[in-house]
Amino acid sequence: MKDFAGKVAVVTGAASGMGLAFAHKFADEGMSVVLADIESEPLAMAEGALRAKGAKTLAVRTDVMSKEAVDRLADAAFATFGNVHIVCNNAGVIASASNLRTPAWESPLAEWDWVLGVNFMGVLHGVRAFVPRMLANGEEGHIVNTASMAGMLSGDNAYNVSKFGVVCLTEGIYKQFKGMGAKLSASVLCPGLIKTAILDAERNRPEEFGPPVDPSKLRPELQAWSAGFTAALSAGIEPSDVGQMVFEAIRDDQFYIFPIQPGIRESLQTRLDDISQQRNPTLPVV
């Protein structure tokens, strides 16, 4: 996709972090932007910031776990702007940093339901709501699904599993688009440590999915690991840098987008070598 001015982008999880950075980048390129987020007040603030710079915007409060809510988002976007050219299925959550180190058999099922519901089903709902109409309209366009390097390096927790699913789904739709000669393409975003508030995601955890994790009740080794991970995240890559990379990937039709720290690529290569050589998985360095 080469021409952006006058086109329309939809971003979920747009009220903060990477989603907000994407929205600003698209607006700077002359696009109209549809912002979706589950948090009403931050969403209104994000819309106001874009309008202040002259962008055409539409804000729609959206719970991506709900097919009906995402369908309403699509209806509003197409009704307002006529067509959609870029969709960033970006909304995501993590139960807590400790969840990344908690064995699958110890994590509550409600935690799996919530994380998979947002991180994977939210992306799938976005694909199903937008792609058929984008194909029917016949214009060039692009789908960007936010996964994570957690989706490339494996793990027995809900976050890794959900992001693995996003990588698989996105590669599949990319192949479908290319095989059918569509004017649409797709990219999967697999960030490393990005300076966002994702560790505060439990502020939006619905009551039916159980209470937030109480850090004081974690085992000492999990408390220590969580503290280290939190510190590393606070020193992570700026969301605006990720926004630039996403824009360039769309422009250049690049499938994999890897904003990552030094050393992560080597870990990925080790895993790929394990697979190709039918080696047992290499244990991570703790």
The top level CATH class name: Alpha Beta
Helicity level: 40-55%
Order of helices and strands: EHEHEHEHEHHEHHEH
Q: What is the total tally of β strands? A: 7
Q: Which class of secondary structure composition applies to the elements?
A: alpha/beta
How many H/I helical runs?
A: 9
Main sheet: strands, sense, barrel: 7 strands, parallel
**Could you give me the name of the CATH homologous superfamily?**
NAD(P)-binding Rossmann-like Domain
CATH architecture: 3-Layer(aba) Sandwich
Name the poorly predicted regions: none
- Give the termini separation: 41 Å
Question: What spatial order of strands do you see in the largest sheet?
Answer: 3-2-1-4-5-6-7
Summarize the structure.
The protein is of the alpha/beta class and 286 residues long.
In words, what does this structure look like?
This protein is of the alpha/beta class. It has a single domain, classed as NAD(P)-binding Rossmann-like Domain (Rossmann fold, 3-Layer(aba) Sandwich). The chain is 48% helix and 12% strand. The chain is built from nine helices and seven strands, in the order E-H-E-H-E-H-E-H-E-H-H-E-H-H-E-H. Strands 3-2-1-4-5-6-7 form a seven-stranded parallel beta sheet, sandwiched between helices. Strand 1, helix 1 (17-28) and strand 2 form a beta-alpha-beta unit. Helix 3 (67-81) runs parallel beside helix 4 (109-137).
